[in-house]
Amino acid sequence: MTQEELQSYILQKYPGFKLEPLAHDLTFLVPAEQYIPFCTFLKEDPSMAFQNVMSLTATDYLDYMQVVVHINSYSQKHRIAIKVTLDRENPKISTITHLWPGANWHERETYDLYGVLFDKHPDLRRILLADDWEGYPMRKGYTHWNLTPMPDDVTEVMKDYPTVPNPLG
């Protein structure tokens, strides 16, 4: 199946989904409430047969967050990405470990570093940082008591990040 055929097939099943322009992989912008049904379709439909979570992480845009998942199908030889926009103050989404057990560590790492809560995850706890660690170090604006800027660094942290429109409104 070509990229165009793959895109067409998926959009026939989910006609309201938008695509991320200029992305390397075919990338679908999925509403949070459609995340699990969409992932189930991708796993169980024989034409899709997505068998592997290659990566799962988050991105902090200051106004909102996105969970980004890359999956592939060995048998069908295609791959796609899924982006789900979340509220930054309460970034919560359902786990996909029941579909792809390999997502377990990816979700734990995303929780540990970004603070995204994966509802119904079988073992959501820190994986890289100490249990008593405060905060989420990959979030923009994160500060920790023992992190100090370099002496010649006078850049305001927030000025380095481009303004990106918030898809939540």
Fold and architecture overview:
- With 169 residues, this protein is α/β, with parallel strands linked by helices.
- It has a single domain (3-160), classed as NADH:ubiquinone oxidoreductase Nqo5 subunit (Beta Polymerase, domain 2), CATH 3.30.460.80.
- Helix content is 20%, strand content 24%.
- The protein has helices at 3-13, 35-44, 103-114, and strands at 18-19, 26-29, 52-60, 64-73, 78-87, 92-94, 117-119.
- Strands 1-2-5-4-3 form a five-stranded mixed β-sheet.
- The longest helix is centred in the middle third of the chain and has 12 residues, at 103-114.
- The chain is globular, with a radius of gyration of 18 Å.
- It starts with a helix and ends in a 50-residue tail after the last strand.
**The CATH topology:** Beta Polymerase, domain 2
Distance N to C terminus: 36 Å
The CATH superfamily appears as NADH:ubiquinone oxidoreductase Nqo5 subunit
Strand content: 15-25%
Radius of gyration based on Cα positions: 18 Å
Biggest sheet overview: 5 strands, mixed
